[in-house]
Task: inverse folding
């Protein structure tokens, strides 16, 4: 069996090496000629998987180690009898960590507590629902907009997008890209809605770049620098709008879901799916292959201020400012498009909040609740483990 895989997918050799020959390729540069003799194709979000890529090849299974599938022509694969699997939820915790890091940064800049702002979450799927759970556990009020789910489930507690924009202090976009239909998300945040954003609102986009009209956003920021914006996803990646990149508060190259833990889980999920498709034994387990985190524990006293302690623990795992500075360095050295992709390829290992164990005294009270609610593991003093 010949397995062609995106070079940025971790643990490919460890999971798939027993099944045949592995060929690693840059995901954005894959072409049909390279896949003529392939049996399996494993990609991430930068590879467009469709008839142009696969027609005439012998590929029988495609796996994408990502939550989203808008880069895959799933209907065409089904028509051709080609097996397909994605990795729903694999990097959801990583994206939530990214958003929390951004919210903590904004709170620190403004000298405000986390729960002083209402967060509007657009899209209540794997990422949005987990973000809501963590924020509400931290006593942060949330508004949820997800028209397909509201319609399917009769959710009267959801709000429409314009109501969310009017009432929320922070707007977080976590929708898939849907080009047409009643619930299309392409340019969901269009010029009219961008113009309606209030001064000092915070916009965080970590879903799909095309859900925001980035030209309209650039025009708003060029004329009125009264919004705070964190953008991880962009239109026309990797050749993104460099002027917009310089105008936003935090710019990162589609790495919100790039934790090592999330990427490894995605590999595990598509390995299991491929094994089922071909009737092969799935002998490898992620627990056997996952490396230890180099930072395993932080010890806090019971009188540590909860918000300061939370900020310390979050930045020990992941500081969103590091990625913004890293993108700027890559841009200076290689130009925007090449730097965007090169940073993703060379992205340093990043672990999720759950990999950090926080040791507290038994009487930590509010601090204990804050640490657990934010997603960290907890070890009470005197307890083993």
Result:
């Amino acid at each position: 069996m010949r397995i062609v895989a995106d070079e940025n997918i971790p643990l490919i050799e460890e999971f798939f090496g027993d099944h045949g020959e592995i060929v690693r390729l840059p995901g954005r540069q894959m072409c049909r000629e390279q896949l003529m003799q392939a049996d399996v194709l494993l990609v991430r979000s930068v590879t467009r998987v469709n008839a142009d890529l696969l027609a005439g090849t012998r590929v029988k299974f495609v796996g994408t180690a990502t939550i989203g599938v808008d880069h895959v022509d799933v209907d065409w694969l089904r028509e051709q009898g080609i097996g397909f699997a994605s990795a729903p939820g694999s990097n959801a915790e990583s994206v939530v960590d990214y958003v929390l890091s951004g919210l903590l940064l904004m709170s620190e800049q403004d000298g405000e507590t986390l729960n002083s702002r209402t967060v509007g979450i657009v899209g209540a799927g794997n990422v949005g629902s987990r973000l809501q759970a963590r924020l509400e556990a931290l006593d942060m009020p949330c508004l949820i907009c997800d028209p397909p789910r509201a319609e399917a489930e009769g959710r009267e507690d959801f709000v429409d997008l314009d109501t969310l924009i009017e009432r929320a202090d922070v707007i977080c976009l976590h929708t898939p890209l849907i080009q047409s239909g009643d619930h299309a998300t392409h340019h969901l945040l269009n010029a009219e809605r961008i113009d309606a954003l209030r001064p000092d609102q915070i916009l965080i986009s970590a879903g799909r770049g095309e859900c925001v009209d980035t030209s309209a956003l650039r025009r708003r920021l060029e004329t009125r620098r009264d919004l705070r914006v964190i953008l991880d996803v962009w239109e026309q990646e990797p050749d993104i709008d460099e002027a917009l990149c310089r105008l936003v508060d935090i710019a990162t190259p589609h790495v919100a879901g790039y934790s090592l833990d999330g990427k490894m889980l995605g590999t595990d999920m598509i390995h299991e799916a491929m094994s089922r498709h071909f009737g092969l034994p799935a002998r490898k387990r992620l627990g056997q292959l996952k490396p230890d985190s180099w930072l395993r524990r932080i010890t806090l006293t019971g009188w540590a201020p909860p918000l300061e302690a939370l900020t310390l623990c979050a930045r020990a795992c992941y500081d969103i400012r590091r990625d913004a500075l890293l993108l700027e360095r890559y841009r200076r050295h290689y130009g925007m498009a090449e730097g965007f992709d090169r940073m993703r390829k060379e992205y340093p290992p990043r672990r999720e909040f759950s990999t950090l164990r926080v040791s507290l005294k038994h009487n930590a009270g509010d601090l204990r609740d804050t640490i657990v609610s934010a997603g960290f593991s907890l070890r009470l003093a005197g307890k083993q483990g």
Summary: The mean pLDDT is 94. Residues 2-86+259-289 form a domain with the Rossmann fold fold (CATH 3.40.50.720). The chain has three domains: 2-86+259-289, 92-251, 297-380. The chain has 16 helices and 14 strands.
